[in-house]
Design goal:
This protein is an alpha/beta fold. The protein contains twelve helices and eleven strands. Helix 7 packs across helix 8.
């Protein structure tokens, strides 16, 4: 037992207590989690999961569940009256042209983006490329498309990130070279949509809080920004609006299956390294419990209705691909297996099992060239 100092002993004496009668220190949190977190998780019964709605047809379930997803994401930024796209720079590449454009994404935001257009006669299939989080905010769209017409520091930043997460490849350029129109935008807080004061990890929590104070939510803003970007993509004459896909890694994967679940403008989706269940993510050791980055993917109230794979199942019976890594420290394998099982049951229930790919790779949290090639084969099969 630690010895008490004279001042502490005098205080105890004044209170009429001895050192042996000192009240025991108490707490109700461990690693920022309530000590009863397992009981909280047990209360999540997912009443709007497809398996828990036996009285609804699948079409009716999708309608009801989408409405719930939409209500949790609401309100949304106002739609723009006109995209007013302008090309501000262009670069000819091997088999396609890279365009730096600006357009009105919403009634509030006029944003820069990269648009890659294959050579030849369109319209072409298209893929919206959704960048990751990575706690790396200086670039966004440049994680997916090789930047040009920018400073050497941005090019270096993008190349280093491509090496770290994408096996030294820009996935958007890979797809454009294989005949896809590619659109990549910055999510709010990344790249050219970042903070005037510069990147700051804690600033994302402040942004999420400030948006909630004003009736919005950050995940909702990002999701509807992605939806508006797909609507813009579908409006382009170079694009076949019936052949649009969504692809993302990490947070981009979350954005991809959210987008594919929310709108039928996206006909196929591929999500690399972001699928699990709440039970396995909300533990004392998972990165999810630290807050911070998690705010970008938190939809207020949604967990009272559906788990992650339940939301992703709204994409059924469309073609979907989910990859996870066996050595991914962010997403427990058991949780991914559980999520895959839920997804498989939904697609099987609609006689669409052949439209769903769920696969583990002997990989960390990483989008390797082999995985990229596999996603390209998937989209070639589904969109070409």
């Amino acid at each position: 037992m630690r010895k008490l100092g004279l001042s502490a002993l005098l205080l105890l004496a004044a209170l009429g207590l001895s050192a042996q009668e000192t009240p025991t220190a108490t707490y109700e949190l461990v690693k920022n989690m309530p000590v009863y977190y397992d009981r909280l998780k047990a209360n999540l019964t997912w009443p709007l999961a497809w398996r828990n709605c036996p009285d609804l047809s699948f079409a009716d379930w999708r309608t009801v569940a989408r409405q719930k997803l939409d209500s949790c994401l609401l309100p949304v930024p106002p739609a723009t009256e006109a995209y007013d796209m302008q090309v501000v720079a262009r670069e000819q590449r091997d088999g396609y042209e890279a365009l730096k454009i600006v357009f009105n994404l919403t009634g509030w935001s006029r944003i820069p983006a990269y648009l890659l257009v294959p050579e030849g006669e369109g319209p072409f299939p298209a893929v919206v490329m959704l960048h990751d989080h990575g706690a790396h905010f200086t670039i966004g769209k440049e994680k997916m498309v090789r930047p040009f017409g920018v400073g050497a520091d941005v090019v270096k930043d993008a190349e280093q990130w491509a090496e770290k997460c994408y096996d030294s490849r820009f996935v958007g350029d890979l797809y454009a070279a294989h005949g896809y129109v590619v659109l990549a935008i910055d999510a709010l807080y990344w790249g050219e949509r970042g903070r005037k004061e510069g990147p700051d990890y804690d600033g994302q929590q402040a942004l999420a809080s400030n948006l909630m104070q004003m009736g919005m939510n950050w995940a909702g803003v990002m999701t509807y920004d992605d939806l508006r970007s797909v609507e813009f993509l579908a409006s382009l004459p170079q694009v076949d609006s019936k052949r649009i896909g969504a692809l993302g890694f990490s947070m981009g994967a979350h954005r991809a299956w959210m987008l594919t679940a929310l709108t039928d403008l996206v006909q196929a989706g591929a999500a690399v390294c972001w699928m699990n269940t709440t039970d396995y993510l909300m533990t004392l050791t998972n990165n999810q419990n630290k807050g911070g980055s998690a705010y970008a993917m938190l939809v207020p109230g949604l967990r009272n209705w559906m788990d992650y794979p339940d939301v992703a199942s709204l994409a059924c019976p469309k073609p979907m691909l989910f990859f996870n890594g066996l050595r991914d420290k962010l997403f427990p394998v058991a949780g991914a297996e559980n999520a895959y099982h839920i997804l498989q049951e939904v697609w099987e229930s609609q006689n669409a099992a052949d439209h769903l790919i769920t696969r583990f790779w002997d990989s960390p949290h990483f989008f390797s060239q082999a995985m990229q090639n596999a996603t390209l084969e998937f989209f070639d099969r589904e969109l070409k």
